[in-house]
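quick one
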Amino acid sequence: MFDFNYYTPTEVIFGKNAEEQVGKSVKKQSCKKVLIHYGGNSALRSGLIDRIKSSLDDASIEYVLLGGVVPNPRLSLVYEGIELCRKEGVDFILAVGGGSVIDSAKAIGYGVASGGDAWDFFNFKRKPSACLPIGVVLTIAAAGSEMSNSCVITNGDGQIKRGCTSDLSRPRFAIMNPELTMTLPAYQTSCGCVDILMHTMERYFTPGGNMELTDGIAEALMRTVINNARILMKDPTNYNARAEIMWAGSLSHNGLTGCGNGGNDFATHRIEHELSGNYDVAHGAGLAALWGTWARYVLDNIPERFYKFATRVMGCAESEDIKATALEGICAIEDFFREINMPTSIKELGLDLCDDDLAVMARKCAITTRGHTGSAKVLYEADMLNIFRGANK
Ligand code: NZQ
Ligand code: ZN
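structure w/ zinc ion:
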């Protein structure tokens, strides 16, 4: 077992009508003015933004609004948000939406509180020294940003998608009502389920993994997401299934499923960020398109981990042949991805890419990762290109 720090300062307010408590929760933060930050249309259409405004009005809290966050959130809106917060004297940001809105809120928070050019924090120039406090009303179970310390922004000039990691941005509270996720298109629900699985898989497939308790939590989480994703395919308004997946989404990326396991791999994430950054595909679908290729590429480095996953999560029978069973587990989760209408290759993702396109992505990924990524197998630019090529079918 490796040493670890586990830091989860986010208060979770979970359940039916939880969003009614938003005024009270913001009030506790003793702030003067709130930025309500949201996405395209869904939160307006459902009446959620109006309900949040009423709750803040009831608590006598002043606010301004900024909508328009798109999936793979853009730096240009972050700059706009920073300017608006400065002009209006905003000292708290309420993100109403999913990972894209929350990440945009975090980047605005860094920009306002740390000063200078916010892109510096994504461009390795500076580390943020402060962040405005953030609260979340979550509308999609996926990225886990509501409890995570990470923030991913796309710079539209050159489609550079980069992350910034700091505990400063962990939200103060996350309001989670599973009912709010019932309006999601089936595709987004599935993308979310893949992303949730992957946040734990990235922590599970590491060379360290020898902490039985953490493995048990991780395996239970993965089985829960798979079982409930299947339920939602048939019954998208099943409250309990929505609730299981929503809670799994937060626990999968707040650090819990990596405690003592020696850290992270996260290579599939780094490689996927090139697909969603360059071609604006949904992050979860991009992960599903790449994972099988990555898994076969690194399998020989940690076959026991893949065997454990196959037998304990995917229900494969135990056998003497570790590698064959490990491969069976990889095939089984690819079958599951197909079952929930997720792609298992770049072509199935809907992209028609030539070798030059793949080489550009591998180059950019190597720059973003400053040369290499992954721990199951350390991957360099040539490996990244091999994985893109392998998945381009
Ligand atoms: O913009 P609206 O109209 O709200 O539509 C959104 C968007 O089109 C829609 N949606 C959200 N809630 C809805 C809804 N539609 C109907 N009903 C609802 N209740 O769903 C679409 C996707 O939303 P988005 O916020 O983009 O999804 P997600 O939560 O998957 O976030 C993806 C982003 O998070 C990043 C990804 O790279 C990507 O940019 N990630 C952030 C992480 C973090 N900060 O910790 C970790 C992840 O690994 C990930 O990289
Ligand atoms: Zn992710």
